[in-house]
Design brief:
The protein has a single domain (7-304), classed as Ribonuclease Z/Hydroxyacylglutathione hydrolase-like (Metallo-beta-lactamase, Chain A). It is built from 9 helices and 14 strands. A 7-stranded mixed β-sheet has the order 6-5-4-3-2-1-14. It has a 7-stranded mixed β-sheet with strand order 7-8-9-10-11-12-13, with no helix packed on it. With 305 residues, the protein is of the alpha/beta class.
Length: 305
C-alpha cells in the first residue's frame, strides 16, 4: 500500500515521514533547468528502514534539499547519475565536499557511457576532481588523489544497451539501469527494488523505446519526467500522452510526475513546457492512465508499506 503525503505536509512533518516507513521514495528536486516556482532541479532518494540509501541525480538545489530531508552521505549505498545535463548533476561537488569527514567507506557511483558529445562517468569525474587538471582538484580524493573527498567506486553503464544492467545488488537493495533515448545524450533510467517494492526513475527521455515499458513493468512507483506540453516539437522529452501510455502499459501502481518545467509567460517558448497549463497537460496523461497519480514537489515523501 502506498501512503501519499503532499510536499507541504512532508516539509512540515520533517524527516520523520521517510524515516518511519520501511521503504519510501522522496523527491528532493521536482523541477528542471529553469529557476521557477522555487523548485530544485532533479534529485531523488530511496529510504530503507530510516536511512537514505539511494540518491538518483543531484541537480541544482539538491545539496540543500538533501540536508533538509535529514539524509546523510554516510548512509548512502549508491549515488546514481542519469546523464550529464547540469540540472541533473551540478550539485555533485557540493555533496562530496568534505565528505571524508563523515564517511570512510568508498561510495559506489554509477553513470552512463560516452558518445561524441558527452564523456563517460569516469572521465566526467576526472575532469571535475582530477589532481592538477580538474575543476575542483581539492576533491581529488574522490578519484584516487591525495586531497579531500570520499573515494568513489565508479561503474560505467553502456547507455546504448537495451536490456537492464545490475549496478548494485545486496540483500537490502537491488538497482538496475537501462539506457533510454534523450536525443544525443547518453541517459540511464534506474529501477530500485527493496523486497516487494520497486521504484523506477525514468530520467529524461522521449519515451520512444518500448523496452522502457518492460523495465518499468509492475513498478510500485514510477517517477516519470513531465517537462513538456503536448504541443511541443522538442526532441528531448516525452509528451504528456506518451507519459500516460507508458504508465498504463507498464501497469504501475503510482505515477509521480516530476521535472516540472516552466518559463516566464512573456518568454516566446512559454507554452512548450508542462507548467504553462499544468491542468491541461495532466488531463492528457489521465486520458491514458487512470491509476494513482501524484504531482511532485520538493521534499514530497511517499512511504511504501
Amino acid at each position: 500500500m502506498l501512503l501519499c503525503l503532499g510536499a507541504v505536509e512532508a516539509a512540515d512533518a520533517g524527516q520523520d515521514i521517510c524515516r518511519d516507513a520501511p521503504v519510501a521514495v522522496q523527491v528532493l528536486g521536482s523541477g528542471g533547468p529553469f529557476p521557477r516556482d522555487g523548485r530544485a532541479s532533479s534529485s531523488y532518494l530511496v529510504w530503507i528502514d530510516g536511512r537514505a540509501r539511494l540518491l538518483v541525480d543531484a541537480g541544482g538545489g539538491a545539496f540543500v534539499r538533501f540536508g533538509e530531508a535529514g539524509a546523510r552521505i554516510e548512509d548512502l549505498s549508491l549515488l546514481a547519475i542519469s546523464h550529464f545535463h547540469p540540472d541533473h548533476v551540478s550539485d555533485v561537488p557540493a555533496l562530496l565536499w568534505v565528505s571524508q569527514l563523515f564517511r570512510t567507506a568508498p561510495l559506489p557511483f554509477v553513470g552512463p557511457s560516452a558518445n561524441d558529445a558527452f564523456p563517460a562517468v569516469d572521465t566526467f569525474l576526472d575532469r571535475l576532481f582530477g589532481d592538477g587538471s580538474g575543476a575542483f582538484p581539492i576533491l581529488s580524493g574522490t578519484v584516487g588523489g591525495g586531497n579531500s573527498g570520499v573515494a568513489l567506486d565508479v561503474t560505467t553503464v553502456d547507455a546504448t544497451r537495451g536490456d537492464p544492467a545490475i549496478v548494485f545488488d545486496t540483500a537490502e537493495l537491488r538497482v538496475t539501469a537501462q539506457g533510454v533515448p534523450h536525443a544525443n545524450v547518453p541517459s540511464l533510467a534506474y529501477r530500485a527494488e527493496v523486497g516487494d517494492a520497486s521504484v523506477v526513475f525514468s530520467s529524461d527521455q522521449t519515451g520512444a523505446d518500448p523496452g522502457f515499458v518492460e523495465f518499468a513493468r509492475d513498478a510500485t512507483v514510477l517517477v516519470m519526467h513531465f517537462a513538456v506540453a503536448e504541443a511541443t516539437d522538442g526532441p528531448l522529452h516525452a509528451r504528456p500522452s506518451i507519459v500516460g501510455q507508458i504508465a498504463r502499459d507498464a501497469g504501475v501502481d503510482t505515477l509521480v510526475l516530476s521535472h516540472l518545467s516552466g518559463l516566464d509567460p512573456a518568454h516566446p517558448r512559454y507554452g512548450d513546457f508542462s507548467l504553462a497549463d499544468q491542468a491541461a497537460n495532466v488531463s492528457i496523461v489521465r486520458e491514458a492512465f487512470d491509476g494513482n497519480l501524484v504531482l511532485a514537489g520538493d521534499l514530497l515523501c511517499l512511504p511504501i508499506e
